[in-house]
Design a protein that fits this description.
Structural class: alpha/beta
Helix content: 25-40%
Number of domains: 2
CATH architecture of the largest domain: 2-Layer Sandwich
Radius of gyration: 22 Å
Number of strands: 16
CATH superfamily of the largest domain: Dihydrodipicolinate Reductase, domain 2
Largest sheet: 10 strands, mixed
Order of helices and strands: HEHEHEHEHEHEHEHHHEEEEEEEHHEEH
Amino acid sequence: MAHSRREFCKNSAAVVAGAGLVSAIPGLTSCSKQDKIRYGVIGVNGMGFTNIMRFMEQPDTELVAMCDVDENILKRRVGDAKEYFKKVNEKAGNANLPEPEIRLYKDFREMIDQKDIDAVIIGTPDHWHCLPFLEACEKGKDIYIEKPLANTIGECIVMEEYARKYKRVVQVGQWQRSGQHWQDAISYIHSGKLGNIRTVKCWAYLSWLKPTPRPDGVAPEGVDYNFWLGPAPERPFNPNRFHFHFRWWWDYAGGLMTDWGAHLLDFALYGMKAGVPKTIISVGGNFSIDKEAMETPDTQTTIYEFDNFMLHWEHAVGIDLGPYNRGHGIAFIGDKGTLVADRGGWEVIPEKAGQEGAIEAVPRQNGDGKDAANHVRDFLDCLRTRKKTRASIEIGKDIAILSHMGNIAYRTGNKLQWDDIKKEFTNNEEATSLIWPQYRSPWKFPQH
């Protein structure tokens, strides 16, 4: 792996220890059916901390380590974690349990080296998914990783290879796979009642963020910005490229296409029992939000051509109202009716309702809100059984690749053709060049 490691680790350890961030915890060997599953988290600001809460709610887990290059976030989140631990155990009638002892790290490699850690949660920005994943595989850790699986197609391919080689249990954070109402909707689709499904539409219309340009500046004190950039190109610090906002820049992520597409496009493939598309075309642009504040398109439409249906993706940042009066969703459009699903529930709208031969409408079937909790439970159970998770490495790889295909088609401006055997685009060299990442030294991507 990467790395000019000895000097880097030495410097990092000195910084962390000097800040008083390392604390001892009794050791445990690998988990058994009687032991708690001990886990560490890399990236604890956003979804990383959300995952900590979902894991803490499971009685057979123990948080033993947290890692982040932002010392401010790290110190705050360790307090949040202990407070949430107290809340969970008071609710369960275990108010007298001692608070957890949590070791804190700035270098993920040091955390992964710890022998008492059974599983690693990766909640970093997308460009930092691959290297910690590979390191965790090599060190025998099982992995819960946020979606999308990685920031390039090539990284996804190598990550799957490592997971198989080292026989790791992997759960990708596509937690809708564990939602009961989603499973019920899929069962209806697979029943054939909708007739021939020729079109599937997925969309995400989200108004919760409209960034405005901000000047470059100095990274906040306590942030190792060079480490935060990691394998990405060297850039001046800008708050619009940092923490939550990273998702709007190609260096670190793929915008809504990979962010929400990893959830919704996943169910399109699941419902249609589909593999890879024959062709991909995508158009859009920054029509509402200044390009100085957001590099990925604020508005985008992508069409994937399969053998027997078309898959449409569309998104808009800064707008709430999408198709079927929903901000996000999936519509399976068949000859006899359309099934529309979102995170709240699903329903069926008949074609030619009330006429002879029409299928019955299905009123909205609401979800129970337990998707994420169920997803964590599935991961923990699979750690013990060594069975495939509901969002396995293969599932996470396939949908991340599909999402990246859409972005590559947008960035090249061409209709692309994909060769799944060679893992390359057959008609566009520029598109093929975007498959594999270019890492900034001293970080190194494995030979492929």
